[in-house]
Amino acid sequence: MDHSTALSPAAYAVIIGIDRYRDARIPPLQFSRGDARALFRVLSDSDRWGIPRQHITLLLNEDATADNIRSAMGAQLRRRAGMVYIYFAGYGSPALNLSSRSGRPAIEKYLLPADANAEDLPGSAISLAEIKEFLEWRQAEQAVLLLDASFSPGEGGRSFRNPGFPGSIELTDRELEILAGEGSAILAACQAGEVALELAPVGHGLFTYFLLEGLKGQVIQQEKPQILLDDLYEYVFANVQYHARKFGREMQPLCAGTLQGDIFLRKNLATAPVEEERLRLRVQQLYALAKRAYQKGDEEAVYRILQNVLDIFPGDEKARKVVAALDKKRRAADKPPAVSETPAPAPPVPPSTVKETVIPETPRPAPPGIETPPGPAIPLEKKAPPVAPRAAPQKPAKSPRGKSRRRAFTLLAVLVLAIIMLMVYAPGLNRSEPLLLFNSLDRNARPFRSEPALLSPDKVREMLRQHDFYERHWNETAPGYANRFETAGDGLALDFGGLLMWQRRGSAQPLSFEQARDYIQQLNRDNFGGYRDWRLPTLEEAMSLVERDMLNRDLNIARIFDPAQRVIWTADTESDTRKWSVSFYDGYCFPNDVRFKSFYVRAVR
Prior knowledge:
By secondary structure, the chain is of the alpha+beta class.
């Protein structure tokens, strides 16, 4: 493959984020796990870089053990070709290795996995020397190591204070520089003696925040869908150093090594035609839905569907004209009656004064709540908008009957124009149910876990915060998940946000957990809705239905659902005899004993 035009399809990543450690002597961090998840979303986003999700190993908290990290790096580095990215967010620490290969005590730097032992880092943590061995034996053409960790012997940020390390020893960056070489590069959050800061105003590590901003497009050269290593480093360095000093700290990211062509990351142009075709088919399906809505006389649905078209292709002229016509009709319907038959002419509108707009040069945009570094400004010249013409006096109003006729004629003209455009743009498409569009989507990209799991209350709290689910006891300030519901047939509700299909009504009576499983089996035997893969929802999926406000009588759930099912079972377990359930009365979740409780069922697939 020509590496000058597309990212190799054999691009892989190992992403590690740890903010909770098994050893109670290692204090928790705040944002390492969130940093890792954010990087995963950026790298796997098909609209940006599009590394296949199956090529990314994501290890978070308890899953990020030393053995799992070694296994992931071995699988990705030794057995893969192409480009490899390794990201670590968590604690780093220096330690004396008394059993080093040299036969004498040696200072080494370690990354702390979730199962690290605070008193035995050489025996439980992963040294940078070990990572160097992985890099040397790799089959990947290029490798990039991203470290949001620090190795200062002191406290603060993402540096773990090792009580057994002599404070008088001065550290250098030699270990980090040795990791880099031809075909491999390292970007580290800070240099020796500094700490990698976490900042609450942005909810990220300072290094990762600007790394993410760079990968989202801040340093992409115009008309070049790629990021250069040097450009990314300059952007991250300038912003991290500036904002760290604002907090009275010194933090200078480190970059070492070389990459082929200095290319850090490329857009996967090879998949662009496939993505474009997928979007084109989706727009055709939306037009078909709009045509059906028009035939039913549902202008509100036509308007909403064509807005979705414009969300995908903002330049779609046909959708824009129809939406504009419907907007005009709405405004005409909402216009208050005139006070007099002949209103006075509108006063002239004075020309507006356009202030000079300035855009700061580098450093690039700052996170919210943090000052922007000073710098020279580049004025952008803008022409003042034209002076609005003086409104001409309106003609005397005609009879009510004439008004009604003109209004009816205008409505008819708008509707005829709308159907002509829809018929021209989406010819030959007769299957226009919302179900067609829903089944065409890639439901492997669902944002919620679908497999049952064992969840402690702490894990549930973490899950609620992760997804911003509203829960009146544990996450009462959260906004709740933004669903996008459509009905399909008599008993189905389609959530285009969560990519889930729900029962609208659910069981008619409360059921024990054993009866709930029998109920699901009967739905599948009956081929309910045309499907045989119905199941109980996980707690994540069920909590996505909880609304912050009472939208359905006295329940915190959308009106699309039957309000009879006030509390439902989920498939997730809290202990051997307790399953998690969700109450839509005020919106909360709690575990219940399956031997004594009965709740409703709302199946999902």
